[in-house]
Amino acid sequence: MDRDIGPAGTPRRDKFERKPADEFHACHIGEAVKKARLALTLTQEKLGQGMGVQRSQACWIESGKGIAIASMMRGV
What we know:
The chain contains 5 helices and no strands. By secondary structure, it is an all-alpha fold. Helix content is 74%, strand content 0%. The longest helix has 29 residues, at 11-39. It is elongated. α2 (11-39) crosses α4 (55-63) and α3 crosses α4. 11% of the residues are buried.
């Protein structure tokens, strides 16, 4: 791995090792957002409006693919 990605502690290696963990957390955040939305009986459209984003962005957030902390904080 050192040869392909770089030695431990280098920015490239850190980014490589951090990515799966970030995706794992994003997935859990997305699931929590969806669970809360359903508990509040909101549509993705209404969730998006409350967050100041399009429905498609709310869908991406729930899927764990488009989590932007700034977008999520608008809904708090």
